[in-house]
């Protein structure tokens, strides 16, 4: 009796799941609630059944994208530039803090990117990464973004940086003519180096502000470009 009830509920669950899929995609399904393979479903974990549901629905939504209307769910400019800095930080080999920086001009064009790491020609394997010694050798993200600039002049540009600049980077930022610092984290605000940086920025009239992302996470999916591969594939002859 219990087995019969579970089978009945499972059949209803699958019927409604596939009905939802068909509703989203405007496609009919060949699902047969009485098919033999349904008998094994009660043996599957609930999580697996739930995963199947979300997979079907997500697939349906992706396949039903409106390719004739402008997308609205795009990154804001600020999120885009800060995300670029965060992505650059992924290149850092620093075991403690991975920091990235992105310099942007008035035309919203990126003119410099950098992350914290050893100087060119200084092997990552030969120099120390301990908290006590690394500061003697590591180039910070702001410095690398400035020296790696692809523009002759970065005066009046904005720098987006994952961590609030230290005093040494503040000096370089001021001397480079940057006019604004947009940071993601100020976790070292109580440190003397950070307080010195802010004092110099205030004196040089360089504005600084914290960026609050619209979304906590931004996913990078290397396969997303192929979402409609089956739709655009040429028909078989």
Identify the strand order in the major beta sheet.
2-1-3-4-5
Main structural class:
alpha/beta
**What's the CATH class label of the largest domain?**
Alpha Beta
CATH architecture of the largest domain: 3-Layer(aba) Sandwich
DSSP strand count: 5
Tally the structural domains.
2
Q: What count of helical segments does DSSP give?
A: 7
- The CATH topology of the largest domain corresponds to Cytidine Deaminase, domain 2
Radius of gyration from CA coordinates:
27 Å
Low-confidence stretches: 2-6, 33-44
Overall helicity: 25-40%
* Shape category: globular
- Binned strand content: 5-15%
H-E string: HHHEEHEHEHEH
Largest sheet: 5 strands, mixed
Task: Calculate the terminal CA-CA distance, rounded to whole Å.
Answer: 52 Å
Average pLDDT for all residues: 82
> CATH superfamily assignment of the largest domain?
Cytidine Deaminase, domain 2
GO molecular function, one term: zinc ion binding
Function: Supplies the nucleotide substrate for thymidylate synthetase.
GO cellular component, one term: cytoplasm
Pfam families: dCMP_cyt_deam_1
Summarize the entry for a quick read.
Helix content is 38%, strand content 11%. The protein is an alpha/beta fold and 237 residues long.
List the helices and strands and how they pair.
Elements: H1 2-25, H2 46-63, H3 77-89, E1 100-104, E2 110-115, H4 141-147, E3 158-163, H5 167-176, E4 180-185, H6 192-204, E5 207-210, H7 229-232
Parallel strand pairs: 3-4, 4-5
Antiparallel strand pairs: 1-2, 1-3
Helix pairs in contact: 1-2, 5-6
GO molecular function: dCMP deaminase activity; zinc ion binding
Family: Belongs to the cytidine and deoxycytidylate deaminase family.
Organism: Coptotermes formosanus
